Amino acid sequence: MKYDTVVMGGGLAGLICGIRLTQSGLSCAIVSAGQNALHFSSGSLDLLTHLPDGQVAENPLAMLDALSEQAPAHPYSLLGADKVTQFAHMAQSILQQSGIRLKGSCEENHYRITPLGHKRMTWLSPESVPTVGLHQQMDSGKIAVVGIEGFLDFQPQMVADELQREGLQASAHYVHLPLLDRLRENPSEFRAVNVARWLDRPENMAEIVEEITPLIADSDTIFMPACIGLDSEEPLLELQKRLGKPLYLLPTLPPSLLGIRLHETLLKQFRRQGGILMPGDKVTSVNCVGSRIESIQTRNHGNISLKAKQFVLATGSFFNNGLVAKFDRVYEPLMNLDLCEISERAKWTHKEFFASQPYMAFGVKTDRLLRAKKQGEVIENLYVAGAVLGGFDPLTQGCGAGVSLISALHAANEIVNELDKNKAVQAEVVQ
Ligand SMILES: Cc1cc2nc3c(=O)[nH]c(=O)nc-3n(C[C@H](O)[C@H](O)[C@H](O)COP(=O)(O)OP(=O)(O)OC[C@H]3O[C@@H](n4cnc5c(N)ncnc54)[C@H](O)[C@@H]3O)c2cc1C
């Protein structure tokens, strides 16, 4: 099987790369082993919220030069401010074209409200999530925070208390929905995604409206856990219309409905554009000839190789086995690629829990074009994208999704340019 590009890993980075490649008319296959970080995420996408020295990045793009000085191995520093700016704008357009309704801009971060009612800075948030601009006060009037009886992954009282501490008027409520009684019998099944499967059914809408209405009579705005609108936002918009008040969703503990919806929407866009997804398959070996990859093999395809002109490694970090940590060793399991400097074992972690943990920045080392290196030599047709890259801390620097989107779009752009160049050379030879 032969493609222009094979992408290893189908998380945020792999999918966005595949969407850009297929949009440009290239054939692309994504091999994806399993769930990805989006299934566990807030659904909001971070670009850059803090520099390594703790400085707050209200305007992420304006902080890129300072970031380069403090973190020269950060993927943004390797690419340079101009490319990061170009690809941040491109990411916004592609997400929008894919049918994802997000608010926010790379010019200025905003705050989203967390499941605990705190404010957390971010770049893009789903339209349905409550947000507030920097230096602004939320203008929501009286907020009713409505939890679902028996659903332990969301505590309305904690959210309401925190909102009150912020000077807002908020009250906590629980809605009892008899239609969920069957689900309630098994507490381990009472999770956001399973709840949504019931709440999303049109025949249940009248009962949901009837039960919530008396709780919100005195309120102007409603906050609920993100348990409605799994496949599309339609059920949420319908409920909002029937309740007659703005209704916002707060992320819950994983599995995250907001992250899953984002993933599914990107997947649909990739397939709509002719992309081939191989879900549940796993890259098992990579065959190199000289400084280039010729083909890869996967668990499900056995001896049948997948060949391509270009490859992208987007297998994620420790969370999804893109990197593996043993007691005294960290490695990239597919090709044993070079990694950014790994400190001695005792320095992998910092004893202060909330400090930047050194192991978070472990990852694959690349050249400035984000091509992987092995034993110091660049692999010419292997770009690295997303969380498997080294040199950044997604948690304390608030840049996880941004690195995935920007490195993936950079890889796609390089591939498109390179294949265009090759086509032009071939055309000249033919003439
Ligand atoms: C729990 C968690 C929550 C997060 N929440 C947020 C958030 O709210 N906002 C934010 O901005 N960032 C968040 N992040 C940061 C996150 O890393 C990025 O946002 C981004 O989603 C990572 O995408 P990725 O595609 O690089 O990697 P991943 O999402 O990890 O995807 C990698 C994919 O590669 C597959 N894979 C691995 N090995 C192979 C193989 N050999 N063959 C085939 N496939 C393979 C995996 O199964 C997986 O599907 C979070 C990270 C984690 C771990």
TrEMBL record:
This protein's pathway? Polyol metabolism; glycerol degradation via glycerol kinase pathway; glycerone phosphate from sn-glycerol 3-phosphate (anaerobic route): step 1/1
InterPro entries per the record?
A: FAD-dep_OxRdtase_2_FAD-bd (IPR003953), FAD/NAD-bd_sf (IPR036188), G3P_DH_GlpB_su (IPR009158)
Q: Which reaction does it catalyse?
A: a quinone + sn-glycerol 3-phosphate = dihydroxyacetone phosphate + a quinol
EC number(s): the record gives 1.1.5.3
**SUPFAM superfamilies, per the entry:** FAD/NAD(P)-binding domain (SSF51905)
Q: What keywords were assigned to this record?
A: Flavoprotein, FMN, Oxidoreductase
A GO cellular component annotation here is: glycerol-3-phosphate dehydrogenase (FAD) complex
Cofactor(s) demanded: FMN
Its EC top class is: oxidoreductase
Its GO biological process annotations read: glycerol catabolic process
FAD-dependent oxidoreductase 2 FAD-binding domain mapped to chain residues: 4-403
Q: Name one GO molecular function term.
A: glycerol-3-phosphate dehydrogenase (quinone) activity
Q: Which NCBIfam families match?
A: glycerol3P_GlpB, PRK05329.1-1, PRK05329.1-2, PRK05329.1-3, PRK05329.1-4
**Quaternary state and partners of this protein?**
Composed of a catalytic GlpA/B dimer and of membrane bound GlpC.
Q: Which family does it belong to?
A: Belongs to the anaerobic G-3-P dehydrogenase subunit B family. Belongs to the carotenoid/retinoid oxidoreductase family.
Protein role: Conversion of glycerol 3-phosphate to dihydroxyacetone. Uses fumarate or nitrate as electron acceptor.
State the protein's name.
Anaerobic glycerol-3-phosphate dehydrogenase subunit B
Q: Which organism is it from?
A: Providencia heimbachae ATCC 35613
